[in-house]
Write a structure and sequence with these properties.
The complex is a heterodimer of chains A (293) and B (454).
Chain A: H1 3-35, H2 54-61, H3 63-94, H4 101-109, H5 116-126, H6 133-140, H7 157-182, H8 186-194, H9 199-210, H10 212-227, H11 231-236, H12 248-257, H13 261-289
Chain B: H1 2-19, H2 29-32, H3 39-44, E1 55-61, H4 62-66, H5 69-80, E2 84-90, H6 95-104, E3 111-114, E4 155-156, E5 160-168, H7 169-175, H8 184-196, E6 200-203, H9 214-217, H10 221-224, H11 228-235, H12 245-259, H13 272-280, E7 284-290, H14 293-300, E8 308-311, E9 324-329, E10 332-335, H15 342-352, H16 355-364, H17 382-390, E11 396-397, H18 418-426, H19 431-448
Parallel strand pairs in B: 1-2, 1-3, 6-7, 9-11
Antiparallel strand pairs in B: 3-10, 4-10, 5-7, 5-8, 5-9
Helix pairs in contact in B: 5-16, 7-8, 18-19
The chains are: A mainly alpha (293), B alpha/beta (454).
Chain lengths: 293, 454
C-alpha cells in the first residue's frame, strides 16, 4: 500500500456510511431548514414562496405552541428525573450476583422491547375510566373515589402518560446504570468497607461518582427522548383534552397534517435547536462532574 | 429485603404487560363480520362483466373501512367484473395528509374513497370522470363533485346524510316529553324533564373529535343562509366569527347543555360506541349523529332499533331560524390521474355508481342516495324517512361549510378544524376562545390557499 492509499484508506471505508448519512439526514435537514422560510404547503406543492420569518412569527404568536413547549418541558423533566432515579435504584436492586439476577434484569427490560404505540394501547385500557384495571383496582381496595378519567382530565392526563413512559423506559436506564456500576472496580468497595463505610455511603461516595459517565449518557438520551416524545401522546390522548397534552412533536405532526409544510419545517427547526441546546448544556455540566477512573 | 423488592417489581412489570391484553375491544373483529345478505348475489347475477380480471387499489380511511360494509359493497361489484380490490386503509386523522402526499408524489394508486372537498385535495392529480350517472347526481351534491375547470372529479356513492339528534322514544315518553320540540327554550324544558326522570338528556362522546360538532353543524347554517353580506365579509376577512352575535348565542346555547348538567358525566372519554349503547339501552335521550348510524344500530341492537328516531337539533332561540340538515353524499370515489389502470378504474367506478352498483351499496348501507331519476328503488333507512317528514315543514340546509350561498360553496375553505374547536369547547374552553381559535385555524388555511384578504 503506497503512502497516498494509506492516507485515504480509512476515509474510503467511511464513505458508504457518509453517503447514506448525507442523503437521508444532511440533505433533508438542509432542505427542511430552507423550507422553514417559505409558505410551502400541500395546496401549492409546486410553488413554494419565500416568506422570510413569517412562519416563526406565527409560531411564536400561537397560544398552542407555548402550551406545547410547556408540556414538552414538563414531560421531559418528569421523565428524565423519574427514569434516572428509578433506573438507578433498580440497577442497585439487580446488581451483583444472585439466583434470579438474570430473570429480574430481563423482566425489568422487557417493556422496552414493545412498541410505544402498543404500550399506549395497553395503557388506554388500563386507564379506562369505566372498566379499566386502575379504577377497578382502586375500587376494590376501597379507594374508588380516587378514580378519575386518567387520560381525559386536564392536569392528570399528562402525568398519566409520564407514568406510562416511566413504566416502559425505566428498564433501559437501569441497563445503562448497571453497566456503569459493573465497571466500578471491586477494590474500591473493599477499601471503603475497610474504612467503615455503610451501604448508602458506598452508593453515594463510590458508586455514583464513578459512574457519572454512564449517568451522563442516560440523562442525555432521556432528554432527547423526552423532547421528541410523540407515540406516547399520539397513542393515548392525541394531544387532548383540548390540546392540554399537546407536545412539540404532535404539534408538528398536526401542522404537517393540515398541509402547512413550510410552517412544519419551522417547527422542526425550532425543535432541533431546542434539543441541541439542552443536550449540549447538560453534557457540559455533567462532564465537569465526571471523575477520572 | 432487596431480593423481595426486586421480585415484586419484576412481577408488577410483567403483570402490567399482560393486563392490557385481556380487555375486550369495544369494536373489533366482530365489527368486521358484516352482514351477509342479498347484496352479494346481486351483481353476480347481473349482465356480462365490463372487465375481466385485473387488480385495483382502493385507498380509504379506517372509519370507512371499519364496519366492513362499504368494502363489502365495493368487493361485490368488483367480483362481478372479475376485478380484485386491494384496500389501503389510512387512519382517519391521517387520511387527508396521506392522500395529498401520495398524490403529490405520484403514488396515489388507482381509486380513492373519501369525503374531501376539492379545495382540500389536489384537483390536478385526479382523473375526470364521465358516465350516464353524472346527469343523475342531485343538485345538492353535484356542485361539490365538479372541479374548477368544470370536469367531474368525484363520483358520489354514500347517501346524502341527514344529521341530527337520534332519540330514544321510550325515554322521551317516560319523561313526558312530546315532539316536536321547536326551539332552544322548549328543548331545555324537555331536558329538565328527562333529567328529572333519572336519564341523561344529551349524550356527548367527546373522545371522538368529530361527534360534538354535529350539534352546531345542525344549527348554525341559518346564520349564514340568505345573508350574502355576511358571507362576503367573512370570506374577505372583514368579520370574525366572534363578532357575529347570532353565532355566539348558538355556541352559548350548545355549551349550556354541559353547564346545566344535561350531558353524561364521562363525556370526555365517552366514545361513539358507548353513545350507541346508552342510546339503544335507554340510558340517554338524545345523541347527535349522522343517519348512517342506523346501519350500526340496526346491526348491534336489532331489537331496540324500533325505539329510536331522528330529529333536527333545536338550538336556535327563534324557530324561524330552524332547519333540517340534509348534507351532501357521505363518501365519493375519485380516480388518481396517473393510475396505471385508468381505464379499468373508470369502468369500475362507472359500474359502482350505476343503478346495479348503487343497489348493492344501499342494500347494505341504507340511505338517501345522491342521485335522482333512478329506475330502481334504493333502500332508505327509517331515520332518513323521519327527517324527510320534518323537511316538509322546515327548510332543509346543509352544514355551513358545504352549503351553497348564491350557488357557491363559499365557506368550503372555512372549516378550520371545526370539530376540534367544538371538542375543545366541551372540554372547558370558553365560547370566545373557541371562536377565536376557529378563526385562527381557518385564517391559516385561507393564507395557505393564498386567498385575498388573508
Amino acid at each position: 500500500m503506497n503512502k497516498l492509499e494509506n492516507k485515504y484508506y480509512t476515509k474510503w471505508l467511511v464513505l458508504p456510511a457518509f453517503l447514506l448519512f448525507l442523503v437521508f439526514f444532511i440533505i433533508p435537514n438542509l432542505a427542511s431548514f430552507v423550507m422553514g422560510f417559505t409558505d410551502w404547503s400541500l395546496f401549492y406543492f409546486d410553488e413554494p414562496r419565500w416568506n422570510g420569518l413569517d412562519n416563526f412569527k406565527r409560531l411564536f404568536s400561537e397560544k398552542n405552541f407555548w402550551i406545547c413547549v410547556k408540556n414538552t418541558f414538563y414531560f421531559s423533566v418528569v421523565t428524565v428525573l423519574g427514569k434516572n432515579i428509578l433506573g438507578f435504584l433498580m440497577a442497585l436492586l439487580v446488581q451483583g450476583e444472585g439466583r434470579y439476577k438474570h430473570f429480574l434484569r430481563a423482566a425489568f427490560f422487557l417493556p422496552i422491547t414493545i412498541s410505544s404505540l402498543v404500550v399506549a394501547i395497553i395503557f388506554v385500557s388500563i386507564y379506562n375510566p369505566t372498566n379499566g384495571l386502575l379504577n377497578n383496582l382502586l375500587s376494590a381496595v376501597g379507594l374508588g373515589k380516587l378514580g378519575v378519567d386518567w387520560l381525559h382530565t386536564k392536569g392528570v392526563a399528562l402525568n398519566a402518560v409520564c407514568v406510562m413512559e416511566l413504566w416502559q423506559q425505566v428498564g433501559y436506564t437501569m441497563c445503562i446504570c448497571l453497566a456503569g456500576m459493573e465497571s466500578v472496580p471491586a477494590e474500591y468497595y473493599e477499601a471503603s468497607k475497610i474504612d467503615g463505610a455503610g451501604y448508602w455511603q458506598r452508593v453515594f461516595k463510590v458508586t455514583i461518582p464513578l459512574m457519572v459517565q454512564s449517568l451522563t449518557v442516560s440523562v442525555m438520551l432521556s432528554i432527547i427522548s423526552g423532547i421528541k416524545v410523540f407515540a406516547q401522546i399520539y397513542g393515548t390522548t392525541n394531544g387532548g383534552p383540548a390540546d392540554s397534552t399537546q407536545v412539540l412533536s404532535t404539534f408538528l405532526y398536526k401542522s404537517f397534517g393540515n398541509g402547512y409544510l413550510g410552517y412544519s419545517s419551522a417547527v422542526g427547526l425550532f425543535m432541533t435547536l431546542l434539543i441541541s441546546v439542552l443536550t449540549f448544556t447538560v453534557v457540559i455540566i455533567m462532564r465537569k462532574k465526571e471523575v477520572e477512573m | 429485603m432487596k431480593k423481595k423488592l426486586a421480585m415484586i417489581l419484576a412481577g408488577v412489570m410483567t403483570l402490567s404487560l399482560l393486563t392490557g391484553c385481556g380487555e375486550k375491544a369495544e369494536t373489533g373483529a366482530e365489527d368486521l363480520e358484516v352482514t351477509e345478505n342479498a347484496a352479494e348475489e346481486s351483481v353476480e347475477s347481473e349482465e356480462t362483466p365490463l372487465a375481466d380480471g385485473g387488480k385495483l387499489s382502493v385507498m380509504m380511511s379506517s372509519g370507512d373501512y371499519g364496519a366492513g360494509m362499504i368494502t363489502q359493497a365495493l368487493e361485490t361489484v368488483a367480483e362481478g367484473m372479475g376485478i380484485t380490490l386491494e384496500f389501503e386503509v389510512i387512519p382517519d386523522d391521517q387520511m387527508l395528509t396521506v392522500t395529498n402526499t401520495k398524490l403529490a408524489t405520484g403514488n396515489g394508486g388507482d381509486i380513492i374513497l373519501h369525503n374531501f372537498g376539492l379545495t382540500d385535495i389536489s384537483e390536478k392529480d385526479l382523473a375526470s370522470l364521465d358516465g350516464e350517472w353524472v346527469g343523475k347526481i342531485t343538485d345538492t351534491t353535484y356542485p361539490l363533485c365538479v372541479g374548477s375547470d368544470g370536469s367531474v372529479l368525484k363520483a358520489p356513492l354514500g347517501g346524502e346524510s341527514n344529521m341530527g339528534f337520534i332519540y330514544n322514544k321510550k325515554v322521551l315518553e317516560e319523561a313526558g316529553v312530546s315532539l316536536p320540540i321547536r326551539n332552544y327554550e322548549e328543548f331545555i324544558a324537555a331536558c329538565e324533564l328527562i333529567k328529572g326522570s333519572g336519564k341523561t338528556p344529551v349524550y356527548i362522546s367527546n373522545q371522538e373529535t368529530w361527534t360534538a360538532q354535529i350539534l352546531l353543524l345542525c344549527s348554525m347554517t341559518s346564520v349564514f343562509d340568505g345573508n350574502p353580506e355576511l358571507i362576503h365579509k367573512l370570506t374577505t376577512n372583514q368579520v370574525k366569527p366572534a363578532e357575529i352575535p347570532e353565532l355566539v348565542k348558538l355556541f352559548e346555547n350548545a355549551i349550556s347543555l354541559k353547564d346545566l348538567g344535561y350531558i353524561n358525566e364521562d363525556y370526555m372519554s365517552a366514545t361513539n360506541d358507548m353513545a350507541f349503547d346508552a342510546l339503544a339501552n335507554g340510558e340517554c335521550a338524545f345523541y347527535a349523529q349522522l343517519d348512517s348510524a342506523y346501519s350500526s344500530l340496526n346491526e348491534f341492537y336489532p331489537d331496540k332499533i324500533g325505539d329510536l328516531g331522528m330529529m333536527y337539533i333545536p338550538l336556535w332561540d327563534n324557530e324561524e331560524d330552524g332547519y333540517v340538515l340534509f348534507g351532501t353524499a357521505t363518501n365519493y370515489l375519485s380516480i388518481v390521474g396517473n393510475s396505471e389502470n385508468l381505464d379499468l378504474a373508470k369502468a369500475f367506478v362507472n359500474k359502482m355508481v350505476s343503478e346495479d352498483g348503487l343497489k348493492v351499496y344501499y342494500d347494505l348501507i341504507p340511505g338517501s342516495a345522491p342521485y335522482k331519476d333512478l329506475t330502481v328503488e334504493l333502500n332508505a333507512n327509517a331515520f332518513n324517512r323521519e327527517m324527510r317528514e320534518y323537511a316538509k315543514t322546515w327548510p332543509s340546509l346543509r352544514e355551513f361549510n358545504n352549503a351553497l350561498y348564491d350557488g357557491e360553496p363559499a365557506l368550503s375553505n372555512f372549516y378550520g378544524a371545526f370539530s376540534e374547536r367544538i371538542q375543545g369547547m366541551f372540554s372547558g374552553i370558553s365560547v370566545e376562545d373557541t371562536l377565536s381559535e376557529w378563526y385562527k385555524a381557518y385564517y391559516a388555511d385561507a393564507a395557505a390557499l393564498r386567498m385575498e384578504g388573508f
